[in-house]
Amino acid sequence: MNMKLLKGWVLQFDIKEALDAGIDQNPLFTRFEDITVLVENLFPQWYTLHSDPEEINDQNGLKEIFIDDVFYKLPSEYDSFSIEAVCDVIREHSFWYPSDFYYNGSLYTGDIKNHRTTHWNNAQTGH
Q1: Can you tell me the distance from the alpha carbon of 2 to that of 5, in angstroms, rounded to the nearest whole number?
Q2: Could you tell me the residue ranges of all domains in the chain?
């Protein structure tokens, strides 16, 4: 995993919501443009979470959905913030929340708006 590029908070937004909220024009959010790094490092976690084990899932189709989203990196000054604090910062700058959060390359998920989150990797491994 390329930890240097994925260090800190990476936020995944539906592209329509990001454009509607004007996130691209907000200096707080830096668009993450390296799709290869995202697909190689973040997509496997996202795919496992969003695929349905009871259905045949087209990995390429889900990869297209993943790539169609837009990813932003928060400045390094937010690297030590908890997910709750990051949510508070996002609330100040956007009506929309990210669909998924990644911290140092690990997926966080859950009821983001109500600050009930799970570090996905730990939830999967029981740690």
Answers
A1: 6
A2: 3-125
Sheet (strand 106-111) strand order: 30-31, 70-73, 9-13, 100-103, 106-111, 116-119
* Residues 24-60: tens digit of each pLDDT: 888 888 998 898 999 999 999 998 887 877 777 788 8
> Phi, psi (5° rounding) for residue 2?
-80, 85
SS (HEC) of 60-124: HHHHHHHHHCEEEECCHHHCCCCHHHHHHHHHHHCCCCCCEEEECCEEEEEEHHHCEEEEHHHHH
97 has a pLDDT exceeding 80: yes
Planar angle of CA 124, 126, 127, nearest 5 degrees: 115
The DSSP output letter for 29 is -
| pTM over 0.85, yes/no | no
Cβ atoms of 9 and 101 closer than 8 Å = yes
